Amino acid sequence: MFDILIPSLVDGLLLGFVYGIAAMGLSLIWGVMNVINLAHGPIIALGMFGIYLAFTILGLNPYLALVLVAFAGLVLGILIYYVAVNRVIDAPHLSSLLATFSVNMIIIGIGTAIFTVSPYNVDFTLGAVDIGPIRLLWTRVAAALAAVIVTGLLYLFLFRTRTGKNIRAVANNRTAAELMGIPSSRVLALSFGIGTMLAAIAGGLIATFFPFTILAGGGYELRSFVIVVLGGLGNPLGALVGGLILGSLEGIIPVFMQTSWVPVIEFVLFVFIILVRPSGLLGSRV
Amino acid sequence: MTALEIKNLESGYGEVQILWGVDLNLEEGRLTSLVGTNGAGKTTLLRTVMGTLKPWGGSVRLNGKDVSNLPAHRKPDLGLVMVPEGRQLFTSMSVEENLEMGATNARARLKLDDNLERVYELFPRLKERRDQQSGTLSGGEQQMLAVARGLMADPSVIMFDELSLGLAPVLVLNLFQTLRQLKGEGLTMLLVEQNVHMALSVSDYAYVLSEGRVSLEGPAHEVASTESVQKAYLGI
Questions:
Q1: pTM above 0.90?
Q2: What is the ipTM of this complex?
Q3: Domain range A2-116+148-276, CATH class
Q4: Residue B105 with chain A: CB contacts under 8 Å
C-alpha cells in the first residue's frame, strides 16, 4: 500500500509546484485588475509548443528555451492586454470575460490550423534516481525547482522593486495610484504580461514530461481555477500552496479509486471551498 | 504670481453638467480655500483639474502651462498633487511603502530620502508606524499619511479634498496647523472643505462654490463676515 502511495504522492507534489505556477498567473491577473483570463489555457499550451519548437527545431536545451518562452509569454500578454483587455477594463466583468474568451478561441483556432490536434512530445529526459520505493524523474524535480525559483523571483519583484510596488499599488487602489503619478494602463499591461508569462512557463515545464496537444491547456486552466479558489484569489503564494494541495490529491486519489474520479473530487472541493471559505485557505489579495 | 489658473471650467458626469464656468486662481504661496455645500461641485472641480475627469470646456493652467487635457498621472510630474477625499491609501501596503508611492515622479524620486525625513518630522507618529500596514492605522493617522504621501510627490501646488471629514476636532486643528507650517515654507495650497468655519479661519483667500458656480470670493476673513455665508454655512 505505502510503496504505491508514497511514490504517487511525491509525483503529485512535484507536479503541484508546476500547477502552482500556472495558477499564480491566473491569480495575479485577477488580483491586480479583476479580470478572469479565459485565454489562460491556450497560453499554457503555447508554452508547451514553444518548448517543443525550440527543442526539436532549434535544438535548444529545454530549460534554456524556457527563458525564451517566458519572454515570449510576457510580450504576448502585454499585446493581448492592449488589444483585447484595455478597452473593457472598466466595463462589467462579462465584457472582459468575453474578450479573453475571444483571445482563447483565436489562439486555439490558429494553433489547430498549424499543429492540428494530434499529440506532440518533447523527446527529452534527464533520467531518474531511485530512493527506496520512490523513483524521482529529474525532469519533474527540475520543474518543481524552477517553480520555486519563479515564485521567489515574483515575490522579490513585487515587494522589493519600484515596478513591483507600482503593481501592488494599482491592485490596491487604481485611482490613488493614478493620482500619485503611476501610469496605471502600463502597469496593468505589465501585470497581464507577467500573468501570461507564468502560464507559458508552467506549460513549458509540463512539456518536459507529458505529451500534449494544442487543447491540452484546458485541463490545466480548470485546475488553476480550483487552485486559486483553494489558495485565495489574488494571492500568489496561496496559488503555490493550492497547487501543492491539488498535486497531492492527484497523487493520492488514483491509489484508492479510478483516475476518472480525480476531477470529480477536485471540483467538489472547489464548490465546498467557495461555500465555506470563499476567500480561500490563505485569504485573498496581493 | 498665479500658480494655478482655472478659467471658465465646465465639467460633469455623462449627461449631467456640474460645473458651469468656474474661475479660480491660486496665488503662489497662499492658502486658498474652496467651500460650499455638499453637491456644489467641489470634488468635481478637483477631479477635473487633476484630469480624472475630462473638462467639457475652459482651461487649467499650471505655472502658465496649459494642462487642461493631461491625464491625472502626468500632473505630479509638473508639481500638481491632490490628496483625495477618503484618504484612498494603499491599505495593503506599509506606511513607508505608501510614502514611497507618493514619490513616483522623477523629481520626487531624486529627493525621496530628504522628503521622507521631512514628512517624518512633520508627522512623527508615521515614523513610529513606518512598517505597519496602512489599513490598520487610526483615522487620524490615515489622514496624516494621506497628506504626507501627497507631500512626498514634492508638489508646488497641493489640493486637499475634505481633509477634516470624519476626524475629531483636535486632530483637525493639528492638521490645519501643519498646513500653516507648510504655507510658511512657500507651498501653494487649495483646501476644499465642508467645514467652512475651520477652513476660513486658516486660509488667506476663499471661494464659495454653489450649484457649480463661484458665488462669492475674497480674502477669507471678508468672506467669513459676509452675511450670506454666516447664514448659510456658519449658522450665525
A1: yes
A2: 0.93
A3: mainly alpha
A4: 181
